[in-house]
Write a structure and sequence with these properties.
Elements: H1 3-22, H2 53-64, H3 86-98, H4 109-126, E1 140-144, H5 147-165, E2 174-179, H6 185-193, E3 196-200, H7 212-224, E4 228-235, H8 247-255, E5 261-265, H9 284-290, E6 293-297, H10 298-301, E7 309-313, H11 316-323, H12 333-337, H13 356-390, E8 395-397, E9 405-410, H14 422-437, E10 445-449, E11 452-458, H15 466-488
Parallel strand pairs: 2-3, 2-4, 4-5, 5-6
Antiparallel strand pairs: 1-7, 6-7, 8-9, 9-11, 10-11
Helix pairs in contact: 3-13, 4-13, 5-6, 5-11, 7-8, 8-9, 13-15, 14-15
The structure holds pyridoxal-5'-phosphate (PLP).
Pyridoxal-5'-phosphate is lined by residues 79-80, 146-148, 183, 185, 235, 237-239, 265, 267-268, 297, 309.
Cofactor: pyridoxal 5'-phosphate
GO biological process, one term: amino acid metabolic process
GO molecular function, one term: carboxy-lyase activity
């Protein structure tokens, strides 16, 4: 393809993208295809000769688009939505057009420098302590692929710091802590690194948040057994229910254990810190006081298209001491002089995408006010959903709504004198869930909270409005009535 052909194909691509967004509302949220559908449509080997790109783009429309689940659909309430904006899309377009794996500053100075600047913008947007700013020269922020990637990286650094502090400690003594509500990223990091992992039980009466004393007890038990606690992954906004670990209690406990790293995973909820009124509930003061590292994903609820996980550390040297491996072929004049940041030394991979561009575009396009308005709008829409649930005698809210997430289920006990057992209620909710998940015009996901089967609704798609929330409630009410009928038969 030459430049003029690219110009033409590029305009056509933008037109198609616009048409896709314009027709989003009318599309199914969930792809209506069966497993293996694409193999039947696409040849089993690449063509011998290059094809006309118009045909290739037509095939995208014909074969790929029907197999897309529309995460940007206004009735997408599953998992945690990944809000995506045109500003972000354009950032990615420019970034891929200049394609460079910016592992060293000299690979493309603009890439490293924009990342350092926008990560400071992000830190200020969220109210993080200046200790986390890149301009501090000590702490700093780096863009990662995912929160799992961020957690794995800091766990590697935490292990490295611990074994430098206590060289006599054996690998099998090291233990990593998560809770039973932490995202699977903790257990996975343990698997990858061959570490002992303890998932501390959190209780329904604590709203599935970890209390300081519960952590202390676990640390004491394990220390008595000769184990060495070196990292704890706390969560602000757990995946299942949006629980917020009690960092104000956890922080002082962690400080009693030299070398114990506190990583705060706020993959979803962290961006709510952009609004001053949510900072107390999201534990900003404790993050600023106690966290060794903090991660949030702007690619979830932060308007930047995937991938855009942001990681801040209080001391960048903790990353570089663990991860700086510099053979001759990676050395540069500025790197040797220590006058630049070479981000390859802050994470596991070498090459990295130019992600700061989309971050910059989004933050400039929305501004702090626009960003805050979007977060507030999502929370307000969730509040509306909660009030609708409360108006119905059939629904119960399982855990306190968290920001833009509600966990609920059917509990007809509120409307009649029947008194079903816990397992009968779970059966009812599985029937309800099978009906809801069979629909293609709305997408929610389910979870299990200590044996209680429930449904989650997370608001976050940029185009969701009050009408979509009301429509969601209507659909859920219809399916609830159907489920209750089947269950009572
Ligand atoms: N942490 C929390 C609290 C999450 O909810 C999720 C995903 O939903 C993750 C981590 C994983 O995020 P990623 O896909 O960026 O690894």
């Amino acid at each position: 393809m030459d430049i003029e052909q690219f110009r033409k194909a590029g305009y056509a691509a933008i037109d198609r993208i616009c048409d896709y967004y314009a027709s989003l509302q009318a599309r199914p949220v969930i792809a209506q295809v069966q497993p293996g559908y694409l193999r039947k449509l696409i040849p089993d080997a690449a063509p011998e000769k290059g094809e006309d790109f118009t045909v290739v783009q037509d095939d995208y429309q014909k074969f790929i688009v029907p197999g897309l689940t529309s995460w940007q659909h206004p009735s997408f309430f599953a998992y945690f939505p990944t809000a995506c904006t045109f500003e972000g899309i354009l950032g990615d377009l420019y970034a891929s057009s200049v394609c460079h794996p910016g592992f060293n500053w000299s690979c493309s100075p603009a890439s490293t420098e924009l990342e350092a600047i926008t990560m400071d913008w992000g830190a200020k947007l969220l109210g993080l302590s200046p200790a986390f700013y890149n301009t501090s020269g000590v702490g700093g922020g780096v863009i990662m692929t995912t929160a799992s990637d961020s957690a794995l990286t800091v766990i590697v650094a935490a292990r490295s710091r611990y074994t430098r502090l206590f060289p006599e400690v054996k690998a099998e003594q090291l233990i990593l802590y998560v809770t039973t509500q932490t995202h699977s990223l903790g257990v996975k990091a343990g698997l990858v690194l061959g570490l002992k992992v303890r998932a501390i039980d959190v209780k329904a009466e604590d709203n599935f948040a970890l209390r300081g004393e519960v952590l202390r007890k676990a640390l004491e038990e394990d220390t008595e057994k000769g184990l060495k606690p070196f990292v704890f992954v706390a969560t602000v906004g757990t995946t299942s229910s949006g629980a917020i670990d009690r960092l104000e209690e956890i922080g002082p406990v962690v400080q009693d254990y030299p070398g114990l790293w506190l990583h705060v995973d706020a993959a979803w909820a962290g961006v709510a810190l952009s609004c001053p009124e949510y900072r107390e509930i999201a534990k900003l003061a404790s993050i600023n006081e106690y966290a060794t590292s903090f991660c949030t994903n702007f690619h979830k609820w932060g308007l930047v298209n995937f991938d855009m996980s942001t990681l801040w550390v209080r001391d960048r040297k903790l990353l570089t001491d663990a991860l700086d491996v510099t053979p001759e072929f990676l050395r540069t004049k500025h790197g040797d002089a220590g006058t630049v940041v070479d981000y390859r030394n802050w994470h596991l991979g070498l090459g990295r995408r130019f992600r700061s561009l989309k971050f910059w575009f989004v933050l400039r396009g929305f501004g702090v006010k626009g960003f805050q308005n979007y977060i507030r709008r999502c929370i307000k829409l969730n509040d509306l959903f909660v009030s609708l649930l409360k108006s119905s005698p059939n629904f119960a809210i399982v855990t306190p709504p968290s920001f833009a997430l509600t966990v609920f289920r059917l509990e007809p006990t509120q409307s009649s004198d029947i008194n079903p057992s816990a397992s009968q209620l779970n059966d009812l909710n599985r029937i309800f869930w099978s009906r809801v998940s069979a629909r293609h015009d709305i997408y929610l996901t389910q979870t299990d909270l200590n044996g209680v089967f429930c449904i989650r609704l997370a608001v976050g798609a940029e185009r969701t409005t009050e009408a979509h929330i009301r429509q969601a409630f209507e659909l859920l009410s219809t399916e609830a009535e159907g489920a209750l009928k089947v269950w009572q038969e």
